[in-house]
Automatic annotation (TrEMBL):
Coiled coil: none annotated. Residues 74-88 have a biased composition (Polar residues). Its EC number is 5.2.1.8. Belongs to the cyclophilin-type PPIase family. Residues 1-21, 67-88 are annotated as: Disordered. Keywords: Isomerase, Rotamase. Signal peptide: none annotated. The keyword Isomerase applies. One of its GO terms (molecular function) is peptidyl-prolyl cis-trans isomerase activity. Residues 21-138 form the PPIase cyclophilin-type domain. It catalyses: [protein]-peptidylproline (omega=180) = [protein]-peptidylproline (omega=0). This is Peptidyl-prolyl cis-trans isomerase. The keyword Isomerase applies.
Length: 152
C-alpha cells in the first residue's frame, strides 16, 4: 500500500474564522501543490487555531506564526513560484530574504492591494473569495479562531 497522498484536484475552499468574522479562501493546487497540501494539513489539524495576525500593514496581513512575532515556523517548504500575480486578495507564503527557494511552513499572508512586486518571488497559493472587508478590518493581535476545510 502506497503512503504517497493522492494529488489534490480542483480548487479546495477553506473558511478561516477570525475574531473579526469569517474569510473564505480558494486554493490553487495546480500552481502550488506542495504548499496547498501543507496548509490543508496544517489547517485540518487546527495548528493555526488561536494564533494571531502578527503583521498588519496597509498592503498585507500575515498570520499563523506559532511564536506570534514573525520568527516562528520552519523554512522547509519549497518555494513554488508561478505566473500568478499578487493582486488584491491573493494568498501567499512568508519566507526569509534568503534562501529564496524555501518558504515558511506555517505563516501565510493575504495582500490587501495589488502587490505585483511579489510576483515570481513568493509562492502564490490561492485567493480570498469572500469577506475582503474582514481582511481590511484586521489589526495586529486579531485571532485566527479556527479553520474549516469546506471542499477538498
Amino acid at each position: 500500500m502506497s503512503t504517497t497522498p493522492e494529488p489534490i484536484t480542483g480548487r479546495p475552499q477553506v473558511e478561516i474564522s477570525t475574531s473579526k468574522g469569517p474569510i473564505t479562501l480558494e486554493l490553487r493546487p495546480d500552481l502550488a501543490p506542495k504548499t496547498v497540501a501543507n496548509f490543508l494539513g496544517l489547517w485540518s489539524r487546527g495548528e493555526c487555531d488561536n494564533l494571531t495576525f502578527h503583521r498588519v500593514e496597509d498592503w498585507v496581513v500575515q498570520g499563523c506564526d506559532p511564536k506570534g512575532d514573525g520568527t516562528g515556523g520552519n523554512s522547509t517548504l519549497p518555494t513554488e513560484t508561478s505566473d500568478a500575480s499578487f493582486t488584491t486578495g491573493s494568498l501567499g507564503v512568508a519566507r526569509r530574504a534568503t534562501p529564496k527557494d524555501v518558504s515558511n511552513d506555517s505563516q501565510f499572508f493575504i495582500v490587501k492591494k495589488d502587490s505585483t512586486f511579489l510576483d515570481g518571488e513568493y509562492t502564490y497559493f490561492g485567493r480570498v473569495v469572500s469577506s475582503m472587508e474582514i481582511i481590511n478590518s484586521l489589526a495586529v493581535g486579531d485571532k485566527i479562531q479556527s479553520t474549516t476545510i469546506l471542499t477538498k
